[in-house]
Amino acid sequence: MADDDNAFNKKLNVSNDLQKVVGESKMSRPQVTKKVWEYIKDNDLQNPDDKRNIMADNTLKPIFGKDEVTMFEMTSLISKHLTDPDA
Prior knowledge:
By secondary structure, this protein is an alpha+beta fold. The chain is built from 5 helices and 6 strands; from the N terminus they run αβαβαββαβαβ.
């Protein structure tokens, strides 16, 4: 179980586009998720008609690749911007 915890909290390389949102070049997946949600809430980017959808501003659009994504889509799109420094 400890190995899973370490893998989960491992610091990953953050793409330049995602760094504009989270402010760091290396972060764990949970830290990135937390920072992205802070950014979404601070910038009022949840669709008011359906809070499960996130509207991309100019900073999020390069990460999402489109104007609006669901919360579930967002997770997989963010993953594409995280790379293992040991790979």
